[in-house]
What we know:
Blueprint: H1 2-22, H2 27-50, H3 63-75, H4 78-101, H5 112-124, H6 128-140, H7 145-171, H8 177-220, H9 222-235, H10 240-251, H11 254-264, H12 277-296, H13 304-330, H14 334-364
Amino acid sequence: MAxxxxxxxxxxxxxxxxxxxxNEENKDVAGIFIQMSEIERGHxxxxxxxxxxxxxxxPRPSFRARxxxxxxxxxxxxxxxxxxxxxxxxxxxxxxxxxxKEKQTITGTERNHVTILQNIIGQSKVSGSTIARFETKHRxxxxxxxxxxxxxxxxxxxxxxxxxxxxxxxxxxxxxxxxAGLAGLLAxxxxxxxxxxISVKSSQELYENQMQIEMEELETSPENEMKELELxxxxxxxxxxxxxxxxxxxxxxxxHAHEVLVKEELGINAEELQGxxxxxxxxxxxxxxxxxxxxxxxxxxxxxTTAIIVSTAASAAGLFIIGAAITLFTGRSIxxxxxxxxxFGLAAAAITFGIGKLIGVSVTG
Length: 365
């Protein structure tokens, strides 16, 4: 069963790399994706041969892969690349675990899938600017916005569903539920927005301060900064003489030297500082609000037991959709992830409903 699952994973990866290539403007990067697609298709064929199955039984791209392609068409294929990188890591982990379980020799090549893109870049002699662009894109999709959207909606739905059910338990779904739900939505969304704003802003200010200090060091003591560059390159395996020459060449242009030191010494990507803290806060606000409105909406038109039942049903449907959406990143079964999300969400709401019921009885009694 595991082998069949691996075949489907390889087929999906080949399909998505092919789509990435078709939608990539840079020919060098598109070439990388084409080679990746061919490699993954070769892996799928090898799995079939291992199972003594004909190539004609090669599965079609899964619903998950086709959905990711549709998402790529709408939101951009950076999302798809991020998922593929996660897939490569998962496959590498599966191979290592299987070898450990069967007590096979670990050769060190098991994680080649994770680094295969870098290897292909080297074989294809892609320009330095293309490599930098590719690496930047790779980093940016590691915590991509689509994942944040799913998790943000989940936070809003679960927290406000629990709050609404707690108040509904105390009041039998009558007065106060709608007000409490709307207050929870607004408070939670504002809290999320403020937290995101502080997070982005503080990171920017910290990095900008570090970059300013680095510039001052470069202006006041260029010799020491040149020595730092030399040591950085030597740590990467470059011999002492070439490392010194590279450092001397870079230090001649202070602006370029500052960029290199910021990246190599501080590990800061200047492009990542250009994001707007306000936009990030607004994004978080609406993501949380979208999830939080689901359990509240029925109480705008209904009350009592009917409103509680409709709210629970709507929230359960929302939880299932969120659980299913998470499988775009995990590769797990839609039914398993969807129902797991529903069970946990309903359990949290049931607890708060029960507590609300007890409080309501004690207050009225």
